[in-house]
Amino acid sequence: MRPDSFPLPRHVGSADLPAGWDRLLLARISDGDSDALLDLRWRWGEWICGRVCHITHDWMAASFLTAGVFMRLWRAPADFDPCRLRHSLLVLAEHRAYQWLASSADARAVHPIGTAAPPRTAHREVIDISGNGAGDEATR
Q1: Which among 3, 54, 73, 102 has most CB atoms closer than 10 A?
Q2: What is the Cα–Cα distance from 136 to 7, expressed in whole angstroms?
Q3: Is the CB of residue 128 less than 8 Å from the CB of residue 135?
Q4: From CA 35, how far away is CA 47, in angstroms rounded?
Q5: Rg (CA), the chain
Q6: In DSSP terms, which residues pair with 139 in a beta bridge?
Q7: pLDDT higher for 128 or 84?
Q8: Beta-carbon count within 10 A of 83 CB
C-alpha cells in the first residue's frame, strides 16, 4: 500500500509524523477523501481550537469557528498552500476569531449589559461531505 492511503495513526503525536504528511492529506482532501479531512482535523483541530479559544474566551464559539475553518478547507482545498497548511489554517482561524470578537463588541455596544439583547452565537457551517449535497448550507 502507498503511504498516502494509510489513515492517520491515532496513537502517534503530530510531531512524530513525517514532514510531508500534511501535503499527502491535502492531496487526499482535494480528491474528495473525507477521511483525510477527519485525519487533518484530528491532527491540528485541537491546537487551532485552543488558539481561537485564547482569543475569544468562549469555548463553544472557538469550536464552531474551528469547524468552519476545516469546512473552508474541504470546500476549497486548492486555496491552501500544502507547504504552509498548518500556518494557513491558523491564520484563517484567528482572522475569524477576531471577526467574531468585533461583531460581539458591536452587539454589546447596541445592547448594553442588562438589556434584552439576543444571545451571540458563533458562525456555524453545515456541510454534508458524503457528496449528496444535502447539507451545503451556512447558517448565522
Answers
A1: 73
A2: 26
A3: yes
A4: 19
A5: 17
A6: 124
A7: 84
A8: 12
- C-alpha dist (Å) from residue 46 to 2, 40, 70, 105: 28, 10, 12, 26
99 has a pLDDT exceeding 80: yes
Return the bridge partners of 126, or none. 137
22: closest CA among 4, 10, 34, 35?
4
CA 45 to CA 64: how far, in whole Å?
11
The whole-number pLDDT of residue 133 equals 53
Which amino acid does the sequence have at 9?
A: P
The pTM (predicted TM-score) of the whole model is: 0.66
pLDDT at 123: 47
Q: What is the pLDDT of residue 126?
A: 47
| Residues 33-59, mean pLDDT to the nearest whole number | 93
- Coil, helix or strand at residue 52: helix
Report all structural domains of the chain as residue ranges with CATH numbers, in order of start.
34-108 (1.10.1740.10)
